[in-house]
Amino acid sequence: MSTTDHTTVRGPDAERRDRADYTGGVYGSMLAASVVIGAGTLGSFPRLELVLLLLLTGLAFWVAHVHAQLFGSRLAKQSLDRHVVFHACREEWPIVKAAVPPALAVAVSPLLGLDVQGALWLALSVAVAGQVGWSVAAARRAGASWRLVAATASVNLLLGLLIISFKVFLKH
């Protein structure tokens, strides 16, 4: 039985998945959780305000990260063109994506019979779950051992619980 060299043609989607960086997702989930704990003084439309606050904060931090990438170390290494700008935008997009599940949790909270406080806790739980999920996805994508996957999940869960303790401490 002979062995033959099998080469697989891989498209741009497969290559992009191989290069995927989940740092923005972990960061964005922590950011979303922080937004939720700081959202104690919402106005007349608290759910709408929290959804907007989550999404707009995600967008603002995305812009800040893209700007930092483009005008930080990249500018020293290469000139800016459309491809470089789009690459930086795509690379940092998980920050925004991470804000969507907690925002959706707030949006659907009335369907679950939750009051505003319940919606806040649901969004916070979803954000922490996202933080753990993004870290596990990153570890698995990097080929980490199950032990290391468990370690990164545990560390991110502890960070999430720390954020939750801030919410309990602030009592709003």
Provide an overview of this structure.
With 172 residues, the chain is mostly helical. Helices cover 76% and strands 0% of the residues. The protein is built from eight helices and no strands. It has helices at 12-18, 23-37, 46-71, 73-77, 82-92, 94-108, 116-141, 146-170. α2 packs antiparallel against α7, α3 packs across α5 (82-92) and α6 (94-108) runs antiparallel to α7.
From the helix content, strand content and strand pairing, which structural class follows?
mainly alpha
Radius of gyration: 19 Å
Please bin the fraction of helical residues: over 70%
Could you say which overall geometry the principal axes of the C-alpha atoms support?
A: globular
Order of helices and strands: HHHHHHHH
Count of individual helical segments:
8
Q: What is the straight-line distance between the termini?
A: 70 Å
Total count of strands: 0
Biggest sheet architecture: none
Topology:
Blueprint: H1 12-18, H2 23-37, H3 46-71, H4 73-77, H5 82-92, H6 94-108, H7 116-141, H8 146-170
Helix pairs in contact: 2-3, 2-6, 2-7, 2-8, 3-5, 3-6, 6-7, 7-8
